[in-house]
Amino acid sequence: RLAKDTLGGQINGSKEVIDLRHKLKDGDKLKIITPKNEESLEVVRHTAAHVMAEAVQELWPDVKVTIGPVIDNGFYYDFDSPRAFSPEDLEKIEKKMQQILSRNDEVVRSEMPIGQAIEMFKKMGERFKVELIEGLRDKGETVVGIYTQGKWFDLCRGPHVQNIGQIKAVKILSLAGAYWRGDEKNAQLQRVYATAFNDKKELEQHLHNLEE
To answer: Which residue, 194, 114, 105, 113, is CA-closest to 152?
Structure first.
């Protein structure tokens, strides 16, 4: 049961939550993170951002993805879309996310040589991912992490859940504009804010607090 509930870990007293696929060294002291730990929300929301990006690209395959970090009380993902998202579109995204969660796809991590990753994302037309990978190459990195769920995958360092069925409650919150890398000289993107929790009661309480 513990293995089934595991979402991540912390080693040697560090507050950083590591991926459950992380290889331990002899003598490492491990704290296992499950839904009972507050730190688990970071992992759940990290994967939920990927689910949201997958949902958007299933609905509109011409949309390009950029980054989707975890923030206080939730996460967001920035999209390069040829059309402006509407409130109705946000409802469609949330509905599609629920469909994807019901598939309970396993989340698989792999490593890819940087040169191969650049070529792959170039062929996909994902120019923002290419720019990110080229930046990693300039810093001396030789491989990048790729996380796959079903047929969809994204460039990422993690951490992520074992399977997306471990995400129990998600909610799209709002829409805003953003610039790629925060520079107004760069492409203007659409930022979708959302949140995720370990159960629906926690989500409902959060939404109630927001309303108050």
So the answer is: 105
Give the span between the Cα atoms of 61 and 107, in whole angstroms. 21
Nearest to 164 by CA among 111, 99, 110: 99
Give the integer Cα–Cα distance in Å for 92 and 124.
Answer: 24
- Fill in the amino acid letter for 105: D
Contacts of 136 (CB under 8 A, 6+ apart): 114, 144
DSSP assignment letter at 22: P
Model confidence over 128-173: pLDDT tens digits?
999 999 999 999 999 999 999 999 999 999 999 999 999 999 999 9
Name the pTM for this structure. 0.94
The CA distance from 199 to 168, in Å, is 5
DSSP-H helix ranges across the chain: 2-5, 40-59, 87-103, 114-124, 127-138, 200-211
Token pair for 133: 């990978």
Q: In the block, which residue shows the tokens 């409130």?
A: 87
Cβ-Cβ contacts under 8 Å for 67 (sequence gap 6 or more): 77, 78, 128, 132
Kindly give, in sequence order, each residue whose CB lies less than 8 Å from that of residue 212, ignoring residues fewer than 6 positions away. Answer: none
Which amino acid belongs to residue 38? Answer: E
